[in-house]
Amino acid sequence: MEIIIKNNYSEISIEASGIVANQIKSKPNTVLGLATGSTPLGLYKELIRLHINEGLDFSKVISFNLDEYIGLSKDHPQSYNYFMYHNFFKKVNIPANNIHIPNGISVKQLEYCEQYESLIKNSGGIDLQILGIGRDGHIAFNEPSSSLSSRTRIKTLTQKTIKDNSRFFKNISDVPRFAITMGVGTIMEAKKIILLASGSSKAEPIAQSVEGPITSMHSASAIQLHPNTTIVVDRQASKELKEKKYYNWVYKNKNVIYNQSYN
Ligand code: PGA
């Protein structure tokens, strides 16, 4: 794992956007795995800026979102379909047919989850997966006790997640109790992962996931088993990491090692 510690939210958004932009430039038909929530908003803003000012081209990009609430239609303002359209898709040139977001009101949910998995597979698999992390250590909606080899399925949200996400709803009782989510196993098949976290409320889940034991009680800890993960956190979110100094040292030396050839 590569752990990059930046000063603040703006810096993590810029760092992550550089990784995504380089991926798209080196493979224009990149398959991106996308996340919702407050954390990736700055990254999306920066990608939109790169599209408008520097011509970053999304015309061949294919995307798969991690999750969606069960029971919310695509045009519900709190649905993740609505979030993605208004915060990202309508501002870049990704073709509508290339966008995949789970449908929260599908009737045959089990078949739908299997189809979603097949769509990912048939697209060649996810090249770069963007992740946030919940206060309970979840990635996507893989709440504590989610199998680390789970696939796309329906999950029941924890009270903690419902409370956290109630800030977007009028009443806490309006927050859906169920979601359709990619599984931990689905996420782990991405060729590269970037996990973003900002703020002191993420310090404990970040420390648990990076330096704690691998456990289904913190689904983000599964990334320790992933061969190509970059974790980009701000100072607040890094404050419980014990090996902070070493991670900063590695980051500082990265350019030195890349610029040398060893024969
Ligand atoms: P947040 O959510 O980015 O709004 O903090 C992250 C998550 O729950 O995965």
Structure report:
There is one protein chain. The chain is α/β, with parallel strands linked by helices and 263 residues long. The protein has a single domain, classed as Rossmann fold (3-Layer(aba) Sandwich), CATH 3.40.50. The protein contains eight helices and ten strands. The strands form two sheets. Strands 1-10-9-6-2-3-5 form a seven-stranded parallel β-sheet. Strands 4-8-7 form a three-stranded antiparallel β-sheet. α1 (9-26) packs across α2 (41-54). The longest helix has 18 residues, at 9-26. The radius of gyration is 18 Å and the shape is globular. 2-phosphoglycolic acid binds next to loops.
List descriptors.
10 strands, 7-stranded parallel sheet, Rossmann fold, binds 2-phosphoglycolic acid, 263 residues, alpha/beta
